[in-house]
Each structure stands twice: as C-alpha cells, then as structure tokens.
Amino acid sequence: MPAEFIASVDAGTASSRCLIFDSEARVVSVGQKEHHHIFPRPGWVEHDPQEIWDNVVHVVGQALSAADLAPGDLHALGIANQRETTVVWDRATGRPVHNALTWQDTRTDRLIRELGREGGPDRFRERCGLPLATYFSGPKIAWLLDEVSGLRERAQAGDVLFGTMDSWLIWKLTGEHVTDVTNASRTMLMNLGTLDWDPVLLDAFGVPRPMLPQIRSSSEVYGDARPLGGMPVASALGDQHAALFGQTCFARGDAKCTYGTGSFLLMNTGDAPVWSSHGLLTTLGYKIGDRPATYALEGSIAVTGALVQWLRDNLELIGSAPEIETLARTVDDNGGCYFVPAFSGLFAPHWRADARGVIAGLTGYITKGHLARAVLEATAFQTREVVEAMNADAGVDLAALRVDGGMTANHLLMQFLADVLDVPVVRPIVAETVSLGAAYAAGLAVGFWPNVDSLRANWHRAAEWLPEIEPRERERYYRKWKKAVVRAHDWVDDDD
Prior knowledge:
The strands form seven sheets. Strands 17-18-16-15-21-22-23 form a seven-stranded mixed β-sheet. A six-stranded mixed β-sheet has the order 3-2-1-5-14-13, sandwiched between helices. With 496 residues, the chain is of the alpha+beta class. It has helices spanning 49-66, 109-116, 125-128, 137-147, 151-156, 165-174, 181-184, 199-205, 239-246, 305-313, 323-328, 368-394, 411-421, 433-445, 452-456, 471-488, and strands at residues 5-11, 15-21, 27-34, 46-47, 74-81, 87-90, 100-101, 160-163, 178-180, 190-191, 196-197, 214-216, 219-225, 231-238, 255-259, 263-270, 281-286, 294-301, 338-340, 358-360, 401-404, 425-428, 461-465. The longest helix is centred in the last third of the chain and has 27 residues, at 368-394. The protein is built from 16 helices and 23 strands. It is 33% helix and 23% strand.
C-alpha cells in the first residue's frame, strides 16, 4: 500500500512540533515538546541544539504513535524552523561548538553599530534586502568566530559547519549540509539576485565560505531521514515563509500574518524583489524545485506571544496563556495604559536596537485587567504599523488579512486587530499553517499533491472578524500608541 500521509516538523522558538496530514490537508495527529531558553546575560538568548534535535526525534515518534502509524506510512517529511537562529557544529563529531544564538539575541548590537558607521543601517540592503540588525544570522556567526577560541581557523578549514535550524536538522537526518533560499535570505550573506552566497557580504562579516551550506530550493528531496526510517526529507522553509505557503498565498499581493512568539506579516511580491523604503524586509517567499523564486515583503514584530508568556512567567498575573483573554475582559478598555514590548529592541518598521520596553499612561486607576488588555492591544498596534508600511511599499491597501498561529484563538485580540486595521481578519480552518506549508512543499516535491491549485482547493475559512470601532476612537487609540513608542527609543547606551 502506498504511503498516504505527509509529516512536517516545525522547530520553533518555544517548542518542536510534528504534525501529520492526510491528502486533504487534515491534521491526523500532533506531537509537541517545549525546549529550554538559556539567558546568560540580559539581551542574550540561546537554545541547546542537541536538545532540539532530541525533541524533534521525540515528537515525530509521538505523532506517529498517536495516529498508530509507522515511518513507512509517511510519503515525506518537511521542515519549518525558527529563522536566523545560528548553530555552528563540528563536522566530524556532530557536536555543537556553542549553544545556538536565537533570533531574539541582541549581543551583536555593538558589531551592528560598527558596521553601520560606513553606509548606515542600509549599507547592504541592495544586496541582501535587509538592514543591519542584531536579528539576522550573519552578525551572530561573526560573534561566534570572534569569541570561541580557534573557531575561525577551524571554519576556514571547513572543519566546522554553520546552519540555521533547518540545516542542523537536515544534516542530522541525512548527512547533507544544505539550506533553502528562504533561510539563506535571512543571514545577510545571500545575494537576492544570484541566490548564492555573496563574496562582498562574506568579506564584510568575515565569514569563511567553507563553513556555509549549499543553497537549494524550498521544495525538493534533500536526502533520506535515516534516523526516522528513511522517509525523504523534501522541504525546508523558514517558519514565516512556510506560513505564506500554507495560507496558499501564491498570487502577487496575497498576504498573511502569523501570530506566535513574534508576529510576521508577509506579502507575495511575485518573481522580482520589491525594495522597501518604509522599514520592511525584502526576502524570499519560497522556491519550488527548478521554478523561478517567489519574493516577498516582510514586516517582523519581535514580541507578541512572548509578551503573554512574560505576563504569565515573570509577573505571574495569569496561570496559562489562554487566561489573558478572561482577565482582559474584566475591563472595557485599556484605561489609558499602553505597553510597548521592545524587549529586544523594535523591529519593523522602526529597526531601533536601542529601544527597550515601556509601559506608558500608568495611573492609580490601572488594574491587572488593564495591563492584560494593553498586552493584547500591543500586538494589534504593532501589526498596524507594519500594514501601513506595506501598503506604502506595495502601492495598494490591504483588503483583508489572513491570520494564523496560536494567538488567533484569542477572539478579543482578533476583534481588536480588525478594529485597529479597519479590514476583515480571516482565519482558516487549519490555523497552524507553518506546519501545513512545510507539508505542502514536501508533498509537491514527491508528487503527493500535483500542483499549487490542488493546495488552494484545501483552503477554507473558519472564522472572520469585521471592524466595529468608531473611526475617531480608532485613531485616538493609535495616536496614543505612537506616543508610547517614542518613549521606548534611545534607552540603550554604549556602556550597557
């Protein structure tokens, strides 16, 4: 009997998940396991790559067991991953030489300032589509090469390998040292035109080419997953690109926003890059086999779901993430309180590494209910900032926003998002579109699904929120938000 299912692994920021889908893109089973966050110093955020690898093996087995399936029942495996998170490992032993530096890590801020003295933050944008920021992998590699004794010499000899989380997992599964165009486009080292490592960028960051993976398409067979029964590993996409794919945003102008630890709004711009003048990123959307690459504009928000986790874990105002909606509904509005969660600086459209979080508008009237509401509203306000920038760059106003990710289960947030954006907000039946996108790309590579039209036919609306707020009230809320954002700027000094 032929294999009837596709699996995907989402190696995310908070956990690793495996979802198994049938041919109609229905979720058959799920396996999930959280991993630890390591905070050596303020602003430094690390993961243990070996823990993530162990968890991936565990969740695949968990998902297979839950569905009473064997590895041979899977047609292929796709991978989606937290982007920019940087792993360097020993080619011979397979052991990481250091904990992974996550995308949230800001230890490279001084290096970023030094690189920006010549040409400013957009010094390399025309090559890689990205501004100088601590967010991306290239500066993180440079930090490791400078700080880990003897690492640069080993890298030049090809004895150690770099990868984002997709490369690390594919290497552990297949022995192949590869990445896809979407993950490569987030390193600051790939040329957006050639889709290859750029010698000027490698020289600027001091990254030896022998340590870099081969850049491949997002949907093709990279090798067989020997530790998982030999199924083909047939896709790799950065998590947000996977969500674009899972939301079937295959036409120019299609857009989605994924709400997770951070939130990320991507718009398909077709087969040519669109250069942003409003603080967005020009990035790869995806590449299917030998077909031309599809590009995208992206607005990245660093802290959204992570702010809810912070309210739960650090302040202990709620016992679980879903409780924030109940707490926020104890009040009618934010009471004049605004929360700017610049824990790792501000990403799009500001790109202010010097910013840090502020709570503005506090009075004796404010309760924990108002704080909870301000936490949720921060996600909607940050989304509006990105949507306004995207409308300006794309030259067309967003007509509706497709949403996915764990935060879309919060109906109060989704309604406020529609109110703030003044457009319909639409959630599909399968809200976990990161995992679905990786499965779709893997399925296309092995012929499980014949074409993208068959994927479009699987998309169905599950919920929709329409704007209800008065225009005057909408603009008053947003005006106050922008005042709070200004107060978050210019907090980090050179001696911090």
